Amino acid sequence: MRTHTCGELDTTNLNDTVKICGWVSIRRDHGGLIFVDLRDRYGMTQVVFDPGNAEIGKAAHDLAQKLRNEFVIECVGTVRNRPEGMTNAKMPTGEIEVLCRELKILSEARTPPFSILDEEVSELLRLKYRYLDLRRPSLQKNFIVRHHTVQAIRQVLNRHDFLEVETPILYKSTPEGARDFIVPSRLNPGQFYALPQSPQTLKQLLMVAGFDRYYQVARCFRDEDLRAERQPEFSQIDIEASFINEEVLFPIMEEMMVEVWQLIHQKKISTPFPRMTYHEAMTRYGSDKPDTRFGLELRDLSSLFAKSTFQVFQKALASGPHGQAGSIRAIKVDREAARFSRKDLDDLAKVASDYGAKGLLWIKVQEDGTLQSPAAKFFSETEVQGLRNLLTLAPGDLVLVVADARDKVVCNSLGSVRLQLAASLKLLPPLGEGPMNFHWIVGFPLLEFDERDGRYYAAHHPFTSPKEEHKEWLLQQRDLHKIEAAAYDLVLNGTEIGGGSLRIYDSRLQDAMFQSLGISPEDAKEKFGFFVEALQYGTPPHGGIAIGLDRLTAILCGVPAIRDVMAFPKTQRGQCLMSGSPSTVTPEQLAELGISVTKRSTV
């Protein structure tokens, strides 16, 4: 139906007869001379209906008077130069226009609830009319980036002999850290499938099957509370390979990132990516996904205040849970103390408290060098001088301190304060700009103890292998809090874009892992029996990683939320405003499944 798209015509097409189709973006009537900006996903072309030109038919001009925004039309005309002084350098087609002599209205449109080119429309309205929202050129550009990103990733993996294999969506419910979405089975009354949180066990079974190297653009489902970077369903580049370790896997992933950034942004990414241990990331940046584009690093004050008379510090340095000592850590903000009012400091304390801190102590350095702080009277002269030396304090500096018997709470709290400070002080470039600081984070703990439940949970998932030197500890069920995992995350500018591990491939070690998690042999057989059995039929050493496609694309597009790179996202309540889902189903459907719906108790 068309000879060209609305984004490809230029001066090389002058005097050509062309046929273009698209949506009326804007119609302007200049006293009989009608201009239409015709839009498709490739771009925009100006179409002219000139009643004074012998080439144009009167019927086309009369019909053009009926055009409204978002009508779909077909135009046949001649490409010509725009009049002198009327070119538009911002448009690839800005030097030419199409003088239309034949016009056909393919589809009329109601007045849209918002202008397609208006960027200041409420998100809820856009989600309700998502099919209109997706017409926006800025949003369509995101999906072009997503497409090219997936193609680049596929090319790299294909070069390295990975096979693309699909795995089931209807699967068995297995605990992987979040709630499952449950699907009833009509053919098996009273039994249920689960939508996979990830293809974790399935991709490992492909390694047992001898597929050696696998990948998949996998849909994953997790019934959890939503935020900007979460949706109930999302996509990941799922990767698994046999007979590998980090030294084999990391370069392939780095090659993938290099190729993606070169394709999308023509930007060279340096490799190899730096590696940072989990301990270093937490103690320097307060996060296992550190943003290293700015300073404000955490400093350890525990030794300095080891003999402090300040009761808060004393309690913090007493033995923490499971033999782990607490800590006192601080962030110094250079010469910015005057910027922070008491309300600002209270707001920062609230940020810290959200991560478990009992308080945030502030210290301001006065112009004469003395320290102003609610706790200043408890500091000895030796401690004050030590603080000045350790942090290289100068007049105008601000010091923020957290102390707690749980070092992880200290680090997490100050890490969140650090990010809030970066936003307040405008230390970060606009989204999508500035350096791309990739890091591998390694040396994660294998297990994390939950004080409320009084038990260990897998820090990643129950199939993650301990480091080689810690396998015996797991088999002997000793020093569980010290065991490090053969796990790794790929982090970019404070965002985890991928995570994975080497896997357990020995059934004895897998049994020990279940034991450490408090999973009985009976429960293990019920939940993972098929998987544990598979490990007994000759399993190669293997490992893998999953790259969050939505997060990666959002970074490439410079947008703050993954909703902007997902075609039909849901709200924070997991609702699709466009289709009205989730929705009720008929009593007949429920009866066929053997399900009755009761009102959920709010107690």
Summed up, the helix count is: 16
Q: In one word, what is the shape?
A: globular
Query: Portion of residues in helices?
Result: 25-40%
CATH architecture of the largest domain: 2-Layer Sandwich
Q: On the 0-100 scale, what is the average pLDDT?
A: 93
Radius of gyration: 30 Å
- N→C terminal distance: 61 Å
Structural class: alpha+beta
Descriptive account of the structure:
The protein has 603 residues and is of the alpha+beta class. It has three domains: 11-107, OB fold (Dihydrolipoamide Acetyltransferase, E2P), CATH 2.40.50.140; 140-276 and 436-566, Bira Bifunctional Protein, Domain 2 (BirA Bifunctional Protein, domain 2, 2-Layer Sandwich); 294-424, Gyrase A, domain 2 (2-Layer Sandwich), CATH 3.30.1360.30. Helices cover 28% and strands 23% of the residues. The strands form five sheets. It has an eight-stranded mixed beta sheet, with helices on both faces. Helix 4 (137-159) crosses helix 15 (549-557).
Secondary structure elements and pairings:
Blueprint: E1 17-30, E2 33-40, E3 43-49, H1 58-64, E4 72-81, E5 96-107, H2 123-128, H3 130-133, H4 137-159, E6 163-164, E7 181-184, E8 192-195, H5 200-208, E9 213-221, E10 233-242, H6 246-265, E11 275-277, H7 278-285, E12 298-300, H8 311-317, E13 327-333, H9 342-353, E14 361-365, E15 371-372, H10 381-391, E16 398-404, H11 407-424, E17 438-442, E18 447-450, E19 455-458, H12 471-476, E20 487-492, E21 495-502, H13 507-516, H14 521-534, E22 542-548, H15 549-557, H16 587-593
